[in-house]
Each structure stands twice: as C-alpha cells, then as structure tokens.
Amino acid sequence: MKLLVCVSKTPDTTTKISFTDNDTNFNTQGVQFIMNPYDEWYALVRALELKEQLGSGTVTLINIGPADNDTVIRKGLAIGADDAVRIDADPSNSFFVAKQIAEYAKAQSYDIIFLGKETIDYNGAEVGSVVAELVDMPFISFATHLEVSGNTATVTRDIEGGSEVLEVDTPFVISAAKGLAEQRIPNMRGIMMAKRKPLNVVTPVEADGMVSVTKYELPTGKTACKYVDADNMDELVSLLHNEAKVI
Amino acid sequence: MAILVYASSAEGKLKKSAFEVVTYGKKAAAILGCEVHALVLGAAEDAGKLGEYGAAKVFHLSDAGLENFDSQTHANVTAQVADKIGATLVLCAHDSFGKSLVGRLAVRLNAGAVSGANSLPSMDGGFAVNKNVFSGKAIATYTISSDKRVISVMGNTFPPEVVGNAVQPESIDVTIPANRVRVKEVKTVKGTVPLPEAELVVSAGRGVKASENWGIIEELANTISATTACSRPVADMGWRPHHEHVGQTGVAIRPNLYIAIGISGAIQHLAGVNQSKTIVVINKDPEAPFFKAADYGVVGDLFDVVPKLTAAIKKHQSS
Predict the structure, then answer these.
(1) Tens-place pLDDT, residues A76-99
(2) Would you tell me which CATH number, out of the four given (3.40.830.10, 3.40.50.620, 1.10.10.60, 3.30.420.40), belongs to the domain B2-153?
C-alpha cells in the first residue's frame, strides 16, 4: 500500500503566544516548534504499523513550509517514514496547504492519505476535508481505530457522545484522533538512517484560500479566583446561583 | 442572496446545534440584509421548528441515502441547495460532522472558509469573523475576500432564541450521489446530554484515586443534571470511557459551568476547557495551576468537599 502522511510544524503546546507587526502576525521569536502531535503520534504511527502488518508498502511524508521545516520532517523519517516531500512555500492558510497536498497526491495514487485531526495552532480541522474534496475521495474524520483488509478498511470514529463504526474502500483520507496509535520515540538507528532518506523539495502550485488573518488579540484576563471555604458550600452555591447565574 | 444553514440531526430529531446555528444565521441575516434558510438531511420529525428560530424556509430531504452522515454526499447536496437559493453564506455547526463539511463546501462553492467562528460577521473593512486559535490562547480575526463564504459556528456560543413560528418543511430537487462510506454501527450513550452540547459539566481527575470513588462525582452531576467528564489520566487508566475525556487530545468543550474536581490543570487540559463561562476548581493543593483559570476555588479534600457541595445544592433546590 502507498501511504501518504501529511505533517505540520506547530508551536509547542506550552508556547507563550505573542504577536508582531501591530498584532497582525504571530511572533515566532524564541518559539519552540514541534511536529503537530496528532500528525506525529497517531497519523504517522498508524501508517507505519499498517505497513509493518502488511509486510510491504511505503510511507511518505508531505509538509508545506520553508527549509527550516526539514528538522521536523527528518524527525518523521527517524520515526520510520521511507521518504518525504516538502512543498517549498509559506503555509499561509488551510486551503493553500490542502491544494498543495492534493496536487502532489493526485499524481501518485496513494491508497490512504493520513493527517492529524487538527493542528494545535489554528485548530481548524479543515485541511483533510479540502484534500478529500480536491482528490475526490471519502474522508473519515477523528478516527480512533483503523483496520485494513484487502481494499476495505474498518474505521471507528468519535462522534458527539459516542462513536461510529464505518467501512470504506481505498483510496480515502483519514484524520487521526487519540487512540489510533501509540506515540513512538525515534531511536539512534532511526535518526542515523533518516539523514540518508530522500527528502524532495517541490515547487508549489498557485492557490488562493480567499481568507487571511487580519488581526490577533489575547483573551481578556480572567478576574482573580474567588476562594470559598471548604466548610461553607452554601456560599459557593449562592455565588453560582446569584452571581454566576449558572445553577 | 440568502444564508443557508446546514442543520444537523441525530436519531430522528434536530440536534441542539441546529437551533444555535439558525439563531446565528438569523442574526447574521440582519447584518447582511437577507433571509436565512435551513437544510435538514435525514430523518428529523421536528425540522419545521427551525422556523421558530428564524428560518424563513426549511428544506427537508429524508431520502435513505442521506440518513447516515457521509461528508462527501452531504456536502454535495448542501452545495446544490446553496446554488439553487443563491446562498452567499453557508453555515454549519463546528461539531464532528460540521468540521468535515466546511472544507468540502468551500471547494464546491469556491468560497473562503472559517471553521469554529465565535463572533457574528463584521462588515467594517470586509467580511470578518473571529475564532479562537492556539487552543484558546489567542483570538484571530479572519477576513474572507470571496463573495461566497462558509463558516462553522462554535457550539454553546449563540444560545437558541425563539423569534417566530414553525414553518412547513418543503422539499427541493437535488441529485443525491451514492455514499462511499458505509455506517455499520453507531454507539452513543443514551439518557445523557453529549459533552460538547452540555451546559453544565462535572469533571474529575486523578484526585479521585480509583474508579470505585466515581459515585460522589456522579451524584453531584445528577443533582444539577450535569454531564460527567474526566481528565486524560482517568480515561487512560480506564476508569472512565474515552469519550468523556476533555482536554487537548480529547473533547474541547465550553459549557456554562465546569466543575473541575481533583484536576491539577495542566496546559493540555486547560486547552480543552478554558472557554467555559464559569469554572469552579476543587483541589487539595492550593498551588494547583487550575486555580489561575478558575472563577471560584475551593481548597480542600474532594472526598470531604464534594458531598458537602452536593448537599448544599440539594438544600438550595428544596428551598
């Protein structure tokens, strides 16, 4: 099976967020970047497991970004992907990113295209469905379980208050949620091998997402926590009823 | 020109989000100067009720091929209806199904899209909406430059408002493509409000020490008809089902009241709950980081505090 895994570079979860250029750009100064956890822990690892189970196939990584992103891509290769493609462009919005992935994927006929359920920076969860529409494939979002037998996959996905079990034939696009696989830590052999694996740099195609961020702001700070004595729950109930008006 | 709302249904009835998104649509329609129409795909006995929330027309298609959600089929049909009524704005809920429609609709309609909007459109200097980014650590204003737009609306943000009367649902002529995804089984918990829709949530973490101690959490939740949730370690240890896990890797929620019991408040947990309107934190550690995000805090042993809180609520309810 030919498997494609879309990986993003995102700021680490604990990053302190600030902006530049009159609050129109994210300030990347001093920010630690990582591979988007949903892409790395669940999407990539499940793709590798499938290849191992089937005993054949390839796992290719695709990323949209500048040369700085190669560190993140090499980590994916160290975890076990066979090769990688970097579309050399600024990943300006979801549509632009999805269009690059779709254009590349169309020419390669992948059986499954994996990505994480969302990126932890813009939290849009849009790329998967745009790719699926552009390449005319089914899209299964928030997958927590995936088994493949022949050309048919059985997938469990999260829905509100429960889950759904689906069947779908390859090719398809799938977004990975917690549970799809267990995180793998690259070992020294993987890191050494990653240096020699192919990382192809490709020129982007034109795409206009028709959307742009024109301003950022930080949420207004919470007022300080009001402490209530553990022996005075009547007071807490009164505050929730009269002040917060939630019960 | 019109606004089209994709209204979600489940098990033969509209979901709460359908009323929220129509309410959002009605308010957006006042800004844009047009009507809002709703589209319901699959069985929903109460489809006409959307009229009460401002839908001038409700299109209801209950063909068998639309009963189960397949993003490809539902996006295809929704785009056909949007074209027929000349919709310049298509709205859906930012839930597990809506999230997989936004991108497809954007491609089909050649529209700019924003997912998870939490403000009404502003027309000063172009069509713009806000959404939370960086897991709630910042707010971004997105400007859409195209004539057509697709937006998914964050749940529990625009409470449903009755503004009119029910309408008679009507049909509309569309071509329904064959589903390529086959739904085999749907497992949902009966009798409780699903977490993303819940207005009151009682959640507990490692502090409860063992699954058999969950009773006091459940009793508090039952007293105020809240939905229960848990932190990641509790789900990982199998004390509670996976779908109750809130936080960055679990479900992101924004209820009116979130009571966090024995949860320290790691940044990954806060990312999933920091949009809650009122947060109560009960923890024996006064240094627990969660207190910084709390509106009300109680420092104390949960095994002592929680039963007292339950009793105090019962007393309040009977007075």
Answers:
(1) 999 999 999 999 999 999 999 999
(2) 3.40.50.620
